Amino acid sequence: MKTFEDVVDLFRSHVSRKRVAVVCPDDESTVGAIRRCVDDKLAEIILVTSGRESRELDEFMAANSDKVRTVECTSVDDAARRGVALVREGNADVLMKGSINTDNLLRAVLDKECGLLQKGAVMSHLTAVDTPVYDRLIFFSDAAVIPRPTLEQFEAMIRYDVDICHKIGIAEPKVALIHFTEKVNSKFSHTLDYVELKSKAAAGEFGNAIVDGPMDVKTACDAHSGEMKGISSPVVGKADILIFPTLEASNTFYKTMSLFGRATMAGVICGTIAPVVVPSRADTADSKFYSLALACVAAG
Amino acid sequence: MKTFEDVVDLFRSHVSRKRVAVVCPDDESTVGAIRRCVDDKLAEIILVTSGRESRELDEFMAANSDKVRTVECTSVDDAARRGVALVREGNADVLMKGSINTDNLLRAVLDKECGLLQKGAVMSHLTAVDTPVYDRLIFFSDAAVIPRPTLEQFEAMIRYDVDICHKIGIAEPKVALIHFTEKVNSKFSHTLDYVELKSKAAAGEFGNAIVDGPMDVKTACDAHSGEMKGISSPVVGKADILIFPTLEASNTFYKTMSLFGRATMAGVICGTIAPVVVPSRADTADSKFYSLALACVAAG
């Protein structure tokens, strides 16, 4: 599993087709992502429209009316509620954001009565990175939802990342707990959590996975750096998963990989009744398509 | 000023030659950095040796005995103290770490009686990044010394970065205060500091410089991201300087740029009596040479 296209290939051959409800599929890149899904028969698409005009959507529907279902709504907020309801009622396996504002969609997702929250579950965002520099995909958490993870939230983050790695065939994913040094220091309380997380991993709490840290991003992903530092660990230089201590650090990784690392990013929210895809408006059609594929794998 | 070589060219033409004391210049990459300095007549080198055997150093000295001064010491710790003393006594303008452990050198630098601390000054690490993706050098703080900057430390960090930009000819450097969003939120106390820092900048406290934020790394360095978000600021997409809220975030930026961004990094400690260069053992000769050049500019 070196690239997102490998994930798509796997998905095409092994996973049953999921039903994806797309809320406000009006914009060019969302329509582009949906088009590839339909052309490649990778998922069943349910268009939850808001009544807004969209040339892209009209053209797509004219050409594919026999291949997609449409649920017509009268407003953006109505579309958000209907998309969420489709998932709650068991009529969709994945929820995806189109041109609706993220806050508006999340309001419907987080609604205590009619939303997608699961009692006792931690909601967390998982990102996958396809980078030309590394020999494998990188999965990391949490660049969107949890600013200061607690021990319980760290556990959930690891579980979601490990689960998706298992589903795409990485039998024993390697998890790096990120910090700026290898030293555990009570001044940085996440490093104390890391000690706990390693114990839990050793006790088998995350299934087949190797968890190590604290270590920095370069030590996690570059064997040479580990050698220079004299650190020996099966995770060093081979991390599949990076767990970040704060949203400031994970957002920095996300934005730096995307801009300076020329990487392609895909993301999904886990811990909800079904995976939720909330791409940025600026994301390309490819990035949105890969996020959708990732969510379908997570739902599988 | 797009690349480190531009800085070296400027340095060659404009700045008087500085005297650099190099503590334990035994390893290949340190000797490589010194060799280029001597060959290009960019600085006067003072080798502060520890008595350890080194083929690289012996060969270099055999070929350049007329071009460098040597201060022979009997141990690594002795060499650290002597290097620091050379700066204190006004006989060196820059201190550079060779193959000595960083902690050992810093112990001598931080010594209250005989070290390089300045009363009331904030010691902070400044990094410069030469990246193929961006149209200018990036300067950022602090990836090594200050884990959780206070308002006073943020001020010092900005001042050091702005000062070095002015010295290399960037008349009005653009400073981005990094966070994961544009929103000021009292839950994230650095965003409150950012509001103060912008007021101080507007009052002229940092001289000729534009300070804006909070914003994320991509908004700071990519005009397109700013446009998509509808943010208009002279800093967006054109940042020369990034100020990070924590060491976890800045270290993540450093390591990600270095590994995945294929960037060249240079760094220097500011706020001491003279600039101190503390490269990592894993740094290349080029990276060490650029750090040395940066320190000579900072000392100018």
Task: Sum this structure up briefly.
Chain A is α/β, with parallel strands linked by helices and 300 residues long. Chain A has helices spanning 4-14, 28-39, 55-64, 76-88, 102-110, 151-167, 189-202, 217-221, 223-229, 247-259, 285-299, and strands at residues 18-23, 43-49, 69-72, 94-97, 124-130, 138-141, 174-178, 210-215, 241-243, 264-270, 276-277. In chain A, the strands form 2 sheets. A 6-stranded mixed beta sheet of chain A has the order 8-7-9-6-5-10, with helices on both faces.
Structure in words:
The structure is a homodimer of 300-residue chains. The longest helix of chain A is centred in the middle third of the chain and has 17 residues, at 151-167. Chain A is built from eleven helices and eleven strands. With 300 residues, chain A is α/β, with parallel strands linked by helices. In chain A, helix 1 (4-14) crosses helix 11, helix 2 runs parallel beside helix 3 (55-64) and helix 4 (76-88) packs across helix 5. The interface between A and B is large, with 42 and 42 residues.
Q: First CA to last CA of chain A: what distance? A: 17 Å
Strand order of the largest sheet of chain A: 8-7-9-6-5-10
Average pLDDT number of chain A: 94
Low-confidence stretches of chain A: none
Q: Tell me roughly what share of residues is in helical segments of chain A.
A: 40-55%
What is the overall silhouette of chain A? globular
Most extensive interface between two protein chains, with residue counts: A-B, 42 and 42 residues
| Tally of contiguous helical segments of chain A | 11
Q: Helices and strands of chain A: which structural class? A: alpha/beta
The H/E string of chain A reads: HEHEHEHEHEEHEHEHHEHEEH
What is the radius of gyration of chain A computed over CA atoms, rounded to a whole number of angstroms? Answer: 19 Å
How many strands of chain A?
A: 11
Strand content of chain A: 15-25%
- Biggest beta sheet summary of chain A: 6 strands, mixed
Give the oligomeric state of the chains in this entry, treating copies of one chain as homo and distinct chains as hetero: homodimer
